[in-house]
């Protein structure tokens, strides 16, 4: 029996405020029906302007990313680091990203292609599709009909030329130039630039002047001419490798006529170069400076510089310093640097740890594909990833990656259209492009094309002068 006071209190409360509580019978339901009670939640996306990548795994929303659209608001820098074990989709992501970016007329891409089989680089199919001839650097054919890039090209400033020569020598020697060797190089370079005016100066001219310095260069410093010759001997021997050694023919002549720096895609095919030799960082240095002085221009174009096997850059202190300057300089002129690396430990534990940290800090976008658990923990610690992201990295399947865009961390499934598939996936063995077909790709083809058309109309409305190819 209920307490009379409680009954009286309830009656008085109901008189003042109406009936407070309604007794309901319990309802049986399934979890599928009950989930409608809870509103779905998902992390905010990056907006709908830019290049579609795929879908966010947990919400199913389309994932759109473009460093040029996000720069200045959500991104402090437009540079991008891609990490992961082979076979998980890094190559497919890079290729589709470039193809989708090139739909816009104000985009231009340079790729340093360090991988390949059957005598061609991995980007050869895409270059062919776009009507582009890759710049194939190959010391075996350079003396006959190969491509040459001249470190002393007049398009490069004299300061840039000297900086490039120093970098080449320091990379090859494994240490910095001392003051005496640096002086011998400087006076040889100055003499060549001042006295050769009827043609492009070439490396052979520098080597010859180092071996036979002019008397006035010694007199200016009140030193003996034999001393200047001795100071420049090691420098001459290093440069001679580019003239008459295993790298001959690629850099010891005038720049090849006909290299189209206005093409939407420029591919440097480095697949014929031994990736584990000292030749690779030397090539990276030469190409990097050559591009800095001949390609990056204040013409309002948005440029993407994508480097495969980027640990060759970040693992060399001298080349890393050069590219660090390029990143700082290019950011003002609309350059997005994309570095593709298998393992972060390749660079953070290497000889250029300090320089690597600086470059990683400038990469505000990080995409991490599947890694082993210990590598994932190390990567998460260096990049400051949340714990949940570190824990799922070892469990990721091919095509799915953790994306960290300046602290906005999401899990994204990369999707590929049927049009892109023949260009992205090849039949070559032992490459990460040999991935299985994904049924989800088919329903994205229409979605990708429609989104591209929508972006085209939006861009044309925002800027009537800008159109999409």
TrEMBL record:
Pfam families: AAA_10 (PF12846)
InterPro entries: P-loop_NTPase, T4SS_component
Name of the protein in its database record: ATP/GTP-binding protein
Organism, scientific name: Streptomyces termitum
